[in-house]
Write a structure and sequence with these properties.
With 347 residues, this protein is of the alpha/beta class. It has 2 domains: 144 residues, no CATH class; 151 residues, no CATH class. 46% of the residues lie in helices and 18% in strands. The protein is elongated.
């Protein structure tokens, strides 16, 4: 498993190198070429050959008896250097044996670096297995590489970057929502006061929407519609997070002014973003926030499209008011109007 991952890493390096380098050499390289790249199979730089570019092998060993005036990358395979490399060396999975000269660093992510008597390395040497270094052959530092800590650090940096990116993006989206649609924001906050109905509607819309989109994707004709539904859900998810932040913040900030809305949003948003830092629990909280917010948006939109009819209070013993339509048959449109009992209809 690790070998495949490391080979994939080397393949990514290959793509970057290939995009930045000139077109590759022919299958039968001349004594001077600009690079040597192999996807499957080994690479040999014969004695007397000069490669003025990178040497890359994704899956296969590399032997360098000539000169390489650039870096050497190997995915899955060993590396033997009897000639000279004027650059750095990186091997993802495989041993490195050096009896020639390397003017740069040498790194073996999975196996061991060995230098024999007469070899020369001007840079540092690092390998996961303890390096086997002949005395006086390395000018730089020689260290055993802790690959687990390396990948752990990269993963941690990636998670921090994602947290910052999501936080900034949703904060901007929330500000735009509050400033451009203040009445919709108030309606959404009011709709979210009923927790369980809101959560239920959000779960129903999210789950049913995803299932319907998946059903459309399995049919050729429905693929565009399925992709459109998934895109809509991707838009609703961050909006739902914004709505949940506002509903949560309204429990602490009651002001209905523009500043109150913004303060309420950021109060709830801060709580949710701190909760997102908790391993395991943070993901669950974020998903529930998106689902609950979608339910609040749906209930607010439904209430806006179905306003409740206004009812008038009547004192005990008093006859209820009559609608104008009941006394004047010519009035058939418009909002209902009421007249007090005994009063003539308005002209």
């Amino acid at each position: 498993m690790h070998r495949k991952l490391l080979a994939g890493f080397a393949l990514g390096v290959l793509l970057l190198v290939a995009s930045a380098s000139p077109v590759g050499a022919a299958s039968a390289p001349s004594p001077r070429t600009d690079r040597r790249i192999s996807i499957s199979g080994g690479v040999v730089v014969a004695a007397g050959d000069v490669v003025n570019g990178p040497v890359v092998s994704v899956d296969g060993p590399v032997t360098i008896n000539g000169t390489v005036n650039d870096d050497v990358f190997v995915g899955d395979g060993g590396l033997v250097i009897r000639g000279r490399v004027n650059g750095d060396v990186l091997v993802a999975s495989g041993n490195v044996v050096i009896s020639g000269r390397v003017d740069g660093d040498v790194v073996a992510l999975r196996d061991r670096v060995t230098t024999t008597s007469g070899a020369r390395v001007t840079g540092d040497v690092r390998s996961r297995r303890a390096p086997n270094i002949a005395p006086g052959t390395v000018q730089g530092d020689v260290k055993k590489l802790n690959i687990d800590n390396l990948f752990g650090g990269v993963l941690l940096a990636l998670l921090i970057y994602l947290w910052i990116a999501i936080t900034v993006s949703i904060a901007i989206l929330g500000l735009l929502f509050l400033l451009l649609f203040p009445h919709a924001a108030d309606a959404t906050a009011a709709a979210g006061r009923r927790f369980w109905p809101t959560l239920g509607w959000g779960a129903l819309i999210s789950v049913v929407g995803f299932l319907v989109a998946a059903l459309f994707l399995v049919t050729i004709v429905g693929i565009p519609f399925g992709l459109a539904m998934l895109s809509a859900l991707n838009v609703l998810a961050p909006l739902g997070y914004v709505a949940s932040s506002l509903v949560l913040g309204r429990l602490m900030v009651k002001s209905t002014s523009a500043g109150g809305r913004i303060g309420a949003f950021f109060a709830g948003f801060a709580i949710l973003r701190v909760a997102a830092l908790i391993p395991g629990l943070g993901f669950i909280v974020s998903v529930l926030a998106c689902i609950f917010g979608v339910g609040a948006l749906w209930r607010a939109a439904w209430a806006a499209g179905h306003p409740a009819q206004e009812t008038l209070a009547v004192s005990p013993g008093e006859a209820p008011p009559r609608r104008v339509e009941d006394t004047d048959p010519t009035v058939t449109t418009g909002a209902p109007r009421y007249d007090a009992p005994g009063e003539p209809p308005p002209e």
